Amino acid sequence: MSEPSRQTATYLSRRLTAAGLKPLSRFGQNFLIDLNLVDLIANSAELTKDDVALEIGTGVGSLTQRLSDRAGAVLSVEIDNHLFELAGEELADRSNVKLIHGDALKNKNTLRDEIMLNVRQAMSQLGENARFMLVANLPYNVATPIISNLMLETPPPDRIVVTIQKELADRIMAVPSTKDYGALSVWLQAISDPTLVRVLSPKVFWPRPKVHSAILRLDLDRQRYESFEDLRYFHDTTRALFFHRRKFLRSVVVSAMKGRLEKADVDEVLADLGHDETTRAEAMAVPEIVRLVEAIRVAEDAKSENV
Ligand SMILES: C[S@@+](CC[C@H](N)C(=O)[O-])C[C@H]1O[C@@H](n2cnc3c(N)ncnc32)[C@H](O)[C@@H]1O
Q1: How many domains are there within the chain?
Q2: Complex ipTM more than 0.95, yes or no
Q3: Predicted model pTM
Q4: Is 155 in the same domain as 238?
């Protein structure tokens, strides 16, 4: 069944019904029915033939086709057996598309190894100018671990363009001293620049989700990314700093560093950076948190060398 110029809920439901399928909410199967928006996602990634586009959630392959037109190589992962087969038929003549069957996540904190192996392989085939992009209408229940963990992979994506819940986009873009500002905002803003491309009403999906969505773009800042001595340390420590978000910074750092730094070491680090006993992590700007975590890391390193 070829795609109409404007995909509709009726068209999609007929197509799935003909294949004996219906959307599964446990897999976050809310399909974009406005093909102009599928175009917008693909165009916002500004792909070239030097790029490897990774899509998590092939669905029926509407976005995959557009990525295949624009990118050098496309890797698309789909957990649902039936959709994997259906998309395989639709995309059979696309020589630059590789479909991967299964869960994109090995567990909550790790991406499946096969994905990055394939990304690296596709990049090496495209040559030294190859870039890596995540472009997807993400399943909402796994959007946070996918975006967050992908940034810890080697290489990280140069750009991410994703449809996610609006509430998650708000958290990623949040500024200090707001309720949405937290470890995720700091982690992603420390190494990349987020832009809100479009807010999407539930009406543009079939079936309609309960919440608004957003197309979010994140551009990796290579210089900031490469300035980190230990990115995982930064990621993990930032999470610990926001674990008790209402507590004062000193007590948060003391408990996060228990067994690793003495209270006196923590006080020294905080005093050096000009933080007093009333500072809270949630009011600190991203560069301040970057400096703090680096100072904690250096203090911890010095300590372990002296043991
Ligand atoms: C929101 S739909 C997007 C489908 C399609 N890309 C589109 O834009 O219409 C999300 C897709 O991700 C798949 N999916 C859900 N969880 C997944 C996981 N953990 N790993 C891989 N795919 C998953 C679903 O089966 C579904 O096809």
Answers
A1: 2
A2: yes
A3: 0.95
A4: no
How far out from the chain centre does Cα 249 lie?
Answer: 27
The 3-state DSSP class for residue 20 equals coil
CB 29 within 8 A of CB 59: yes
Torsion of CA 243, 246, 248, 249, to 10 degrees: 40
Over the chain (307 residues), the average pLDDT of each successive run of 10 is 63 80 86 94 98 97 97 98 94 97 92 97 98 97 96 97 98 97 98 98 94 98 97 97 90 94 95 92 97 97 79
Cα gap 13→208, rounded to integer Å: 13
Residue 261's domain comprises: 231-306
How many whole angstroms from 290 Cα to the centroid of ligand 1?
Answer: 34
Instruction: Note whether residue 133 is domain-resident.
Output: yes
Task: Give domain status of residue 90, yes or no.
Answer: yes
Testing ligand 1's pocket by substitution, the residue of 40, 112, 115, 137 carrying the most ligand atoms inside 8 A of its CB is 137
